[in-house]
Amino acid sequence: MSATAPARRLRLGLPRRVFSQVLLMQLAIAAGVAVLATGLFLAPLGDQLDDQAMRRALAIAQTTAEQDRIAEDLRSTPPSPDGPVQREAERVRRTTGAEYVVVLDTRGVRWSHTDPRRIGGHVSTDPGRALAGHEVMEIDEGTLGRSARGKVPLRDDSGEIVGAVSVGIAYDSVRARLIQAIPELLAYAGGALAVGALAAWLISRRVQRQTRDLAFSDIAALLAEREAMLHGIREGVVALDRAGRIRLLNDEAQRLLDIGGEAVGRTPDEALGAGRTADVLAGRVTGTDLLTVRGQRVLVANRMPTGDGGAVATLRDRTELDQLGRELDSTRGLIDALRAQDHEHANHMHTLLGLLELEMYEEAVEFIGEVVGDHRVTAEQVTERIRDPLLAALLVGKATVAAERGVALKVSDGTRLPDRLIDPRGLVTVAGNLVDNALDAAAGTAKARVEIELRTEGRTVVLVVRDTGPGIAPEQRELVFTEGWSTKRAPEHRERGIGLSLVRRFAERQGGSATVGEAPGGGAEFTVVLPEALTDTGQRPALSGTTGRGAGEEESR
Predict the structure, then answer these.
(1) What CATH code would you report for 233-317?
(2) Checking DSSP bridges between strand 449-457 and strand 408-411, what pairing results, if any?
(3) Is 0.90 topped by the overall pTM?
């Protein structure tokens, strides 16, 4: 209890709230400015009063010296308290209110003085400059104390200097005038301080509302926590101002969007380019959990308006989840194909067993040859025309799945693909998506058929996938490549409308294109052109490739 009491007393000495601290600081500033302004005003005022006093003393001395009788009396009469010089000097002193009017000869002997006893004595200050013909203004100490002085030479009718006149004005009278001005100055300063205090109170109230009456330490802690949270979470955060410009990007948003800090201050269209991602961030596309593709990443975006007219958008990376969904679809398809093959294999075995029990050995041998030969012929046709092992394995597997779905998967006679692909995994992603789409479209139609053609033109690879499905209307041929566009219901574990968007983005990133048209005889024909997709002759690429997906990727239309 006793240990915490001093700390509490110290905290009471300085308010913690922003309102109180800002008010006190502004009051201190206003008071300091008022005191400084008063001091700056009084300093030159004192100098001005001193100058006025010295000039007044000089003017009295000049007026006195211009009287001809004083110079004549100075020559013709001795210094005396009752002499004409003393009487005239005292008359001038009483008339002007000066502290003293002293007339002296060239030897520095007084002929007049406020104190008659000092008449006939030498002056206490050096009259040399005045006797030399110069006019003097000064503030100095004399026998009558501190005073503002004016000294001028005294000349006779012929212009010869016969003495000097020294006039003094009491310095206390100057100080009194200065002191008299101080209350008025302080009144003005107090009025200015009151206005400043009112303005400080109004400003502090506004600051209090805007800061929710938090302490500066609380605000600093909130800012530190905000920075740590924004840059520590594994979710992208993009803040936009009321003009639609990006004002904040955390580290994860920069990574997901593949942009740097230079995007701050620019609009999403300027920073990202035209597209769905920019539309979502700018608010032109509304909704919750909006899907968008940026590069090879599938993102889920949400946008929330803020009270100042801006907005905050959050981005989550759904790439891995989407890939897992595609692998699940692929695994399910493979399981269905294996189940169907197992059923078909059991039928073949029953047929073979019957032929053997009937001792029809030649027919049994012929039956086995037909069953084994069909699969061998399909595999050999693919591997002869497509030398890349990954793509060949994909198409052999797809042929089995197609057969189980009642669709004939054929490799066109014009297909020739050497084993020189720079990015075989990327082409597997593209081919897998297009074949799955074609199988979905052709399944259930009369004479269902999917044809694949892979040809090379120099180092360019052209992939064409045709199907006998219903085709795509001309007005929808660009929409099929839009993220999130699909005509089929999405499975529970993932979203649709991603595969074809990835196909086009992969092609455009390679400098190529992805288009769709009408196949000969009806159906859809997808064409993907990939420039510079093959290595030079004699060079073999590494199988690592890029981070493309495999055979299970699909897109519906």
Answers:
(1) 3.30.450.20
(2) parallel
(3) no
